[in-house]
Each structure stands twice: as C-alpha cells, then as structure tokens.
C-alpha cells in the first residue's frame, strides 16, 4: 500500500505539473488573443491537483515521513521538516489557490477577467508547489 501510494504520488506529481503548465499556457494564449475563457482547460489543472491532494493526504497518514514523524526533532532536520511540515503545507496552500482561482473564474462573465483570474491563481499556486517538491529524493529524478 505504502509503496504503491508513493509511486502513484510521484507519478501524479508529473501529471499535475504538466497539467498546470498546459492550463496556464492555453489560458495565456486565450487572454492574449482576446478569446473566450476555456473552463475545460482550467479543469485539467484542477482535477490533477485534487487527485494529488487525495494521494498526498493518504501518504501523510501511512508514510513514516508523515504525521508519525512529527516531533521537536523534525523541525531541526531540514529533510524531515520538508516532508513532514513544509511540503504538505505548501502543497495544500497551492491546491487551495488553484481551487479558488477555478471557482472564481467560473462565476466571471467577462472572458478577459476570467482568463486573468485563473492565470494569477494558477501561476502563484504552481510557484508554491514547485518551491516545496522534495527534488533530492524524488524517485523520478533519481
Ligand atoms: C480531499 C479531497 C478533495 C477535496 C477536499 C476537494 C475539494 C473541492 C473544492 C473545495 C472544490 C470547489 C467547489 C467550487 O467552489 O467550485 C472542488 C471542485 C472540484 N473537485 Fe474536488 N476535492 C477533493 C477531491 C477531488 C477528486 C478526487 C476529484 C476527481 C478526480 C475532484 C474533482 C473536482 C472537480 C471536477 C471540481 C470542480 C467542479 C466544478 O466544475 O465546479 N476533487 N473540490
Ligand atoms: C501539489 C501537490 C503535490 C505534489 C506535486 C507532491 C509531490 C511529491 C513528490 C515529488 C514526492 C516525493 C516522492 C518520492 O520520493 O518519489 C512527495 C512525497 C510526499 N508527499 Fe507530496 N506532493 C503534493 C501534495 C502533497 C500533500 C497535499 C501531502 C499531504 C497532505 C503530501 C504528502 C507527501 C508525503 C507524506 C510524502 C513522503 C512519502 C514518502 O516518501 O514516504 N504531498 N510529494
């Protein structure tokens, strides 16, 4: 279960990064060309983010790098702190930003404004996500 979930989470991370980049680029092209807001394209990023949230939450409860590792010593060790504290918090915030951006844009009638809103929330969300990926131990990169 743990191995399978870790693999799924590692792989979905790539899917999510690609999905967000695609959502951002196509929305940027639509904004620049004064084209309508494409909700389906933003949805690709949103669904990938929510799927990753589910696998991340499960990992947090079954992995030794999750809540079981929470202690005073965790804060003193940069690798433990990254997995147990910084990674989950930053990712959660990033996913919340993406969800808020998607929800807000859904209700905006003006295409330009809807495109801009998704762009701002998705780009900040992506930066936050990129900032706390455990690159040094990510199985796909190593
Ligand atoms: C811990 C699990 C999850 C939480 C807390 C969560 C939370 C949310 C929230 C707060 C929204 C925003 C609703 C809105 O204002 O529009 C949302 C929308 C959505 N979620 Fe999730 N979600 C979770 C898992 C999933 C999963 C597993 C999927 C599918 C693979 C999914 C697919 C969607 C979709 C498609 C929408 C957008 C619906 C629309 O078009 O408005 N979510 N979710
Ligand atoms: C934007 C979403 C996320 C991305 C892109 C992401 C990415 C990653 C990556 C690349 C790894 C390293 C896996 C490996 O060593 O091969 C990882 C591990 C981990 N993630 Fe996430 N993650 C996300 C969200 C979350 C969330 C929301 C949580 C918890 C609430 C979470 C909890 C964990 C835990 C506990 C591990 C360590 C698993 C282990 O090695 O035992 N992640 N994540």
Automatic annotation (TrEMBL):
<feature type="transmembrane region" description="Helical">
    <location>
        <begin position="82"/>
        <end position="102"/>
    </location>
</feature>
<keyword id="KW-0472">Membrane</keyword>
<protein>
    <recommendedName>
        <fullName>Cytochrome C and Quinol oxidase polypeptide I</fullName>
    </recommendedName>
</protein>
<feature type="transmembrane region" description="Helical">
    <location>
        <begin position="118"/>
        <end position="141"/>
    </location>
</feature>
<keyword id="KW-0812">Transmembrane</keyword>
<keyword id="KW-1133">Transmembrane helix</keyword>
<feature type="transmembrane region" description="Helical">
    <location>
        <begin position="12"/>
        <end position="29"/>
    </location>
</feature>
<feature type="transmembrane region" description="Helical">
    <location>
        <begin position="41"/>
        <end position="62"/>
    </location>
</feature>
